[in-house]
Structures are given as structure tokens and as C-alpha cells.
Amino acid sequence: MSRNIKAMAQLKKNTELYNLFIIIGILVLDVILYGIFRVTGVSDGESASEYISMMYGMTVGIFCSVVVFIKLFMMVDEVTRGLCFGMTRRTLFTYSRIVDLLEILIVAVVSILVLRSMSAALILKIAFAFYGLLMLIEGLAGNNILRYGKAAYWVFYIAFMCLFLGAPRLIGVIPGAVDFVATVVEMFINPFYNQGIVWASILGFIAIGVIINWYTFRKLAVNTNL
């Protein structure tokens, strides 16, 4: 077990360095935006805590979006080296998913401490839902990038942009879709709804993501030609 932990530390070293550089870059952007807001007077009506919460929310949002795309590329290096270290696919998959979850939980804990306007339960629900989404992305996109290389990445990127830009319009066109989405969001945010059902749905979503991820990963032929 200790050998696997040391191997994972080596595998994740470069990824965590990239994450650190991304965080530093976003913080620099936050400082620049703060200066612009102060000069233009946009933030005059906000308290320091409100501004910190707003900028922190922006930081986390940008960080999660960027990390997803970076992670898909870093998977190639991590999986290839992990298999070279002698780790089985099952062991590599298990430890990698645990590290993914720990990374998200660290961000969630910091968010709970910083974002006083949001409840801890809501932040944790968002964190676990994001973990489930990450499992789906890794299973459907990341593992195909490992198999087919750069071509699969561009397919994923185009599909993501089409979904990102087209989903709001599509929801508006489909009858009843707006009400359904509003109900789901309300159940997610409002603690007066049955939270057992909400958490069961989130955990089920995670389970589906992990199963798909493992199914596409277990017999993966790695293509390092990116």
C-alpha cells in the first residue's frame, strides 16, 4: 500500500504543480480585477467579505473549468507512468479516483470556510455532484483521449462547446424542460425538500460515473501520441 501511495505521489506531482500555477494565475487575475473595480467604483457598495466571496466564487469556477481540460491531457502521462510503475489498472484507477475526490473535498472545505453566504450542505452537494460529472467526463472523454489521442480531445472540446452554448436554448425549446430544471435546482438548493432523495440522486450519479469510467478504462490501450 505504501508503495502505491508513493507511486501516486510521483504521478500526481506534475498535475498538482499545474494546478498550483493555475491558482496563482487566477489569483493574479483577481488582484487585477479588484484594482479595476476599485478604480471604477464598481465595488464601492460591497463589503470586504462580500467581495471576497464573489471573487472566491469566480476563482473556484474558473479553476474547475480549466482543470477539467488540463486533467484530460495529464491523464495520458499519469496512466502511462502508472502502468510502467507496475501498478495494476484496478489499483491505478482506485487510487486516482480517491485523489480526485480528496482534491475536490479540499476545495469544498476551503469554500465552506470562505463562503459564509452558502451553507456547508449546499457546498458539499455541489462538490459531490461535480465529482460525479468529473467521473463521466473522464470515462467518456478522458479514456477515449487515452485510446485515440488528440482527435478524441477535439471531439470532446467541440461537443462541450456545443452543449455549453446550445443547452440553454434547447431547454427553452423543449416543452416543460424549463420547469423541470427549475424544480431540480430548487430541490438542490432548498433544504426544505427531502434531502435524502437529493443525496441519493447525487450518490447514484457518482456511481454511474464511476462505473462508466471503470468500464472504459479497464481494457484501455494507451495512445501517447498527443
Could you explain the architecture of this structure?
This protein is an all-alpha fold and 226 residues long. The protein has one domain. Helix content is 85%, strand content 0%. α4 (120-148) crosses α5. The mean pLDDT is 78.
List the helices and strands and how they pair.
Elements (H helix, E strand, L loop, with lengths): L1 H39 L7 H37 L4 H26 L5 H29 L1 H24 L3 H13 L5 H23 L9
Helix pairs in contact: 1-2, 2-3, 2-4, 3-4, 4-5, 4-7
Keywords: Membrane, Transmembrane, Transmembrane helix
Offer a concise description of the structure.
The chain has helices spanning 2-40, 48-84, 89-114, 120-148, 150-173, 177-189, 195-217. It is mainly α and 226 residues long. The two termini are 31 Å apart.
The shape is globular
What's the oligomerization state?
single chain
The radius of gyration over CA amounts to 20 Å
**What profile does the largest beta sheet have?**
none
Overview features:
226 residues, mainly alpha, 0% strand, globular, transmembrane helix, membrane, transmembrane
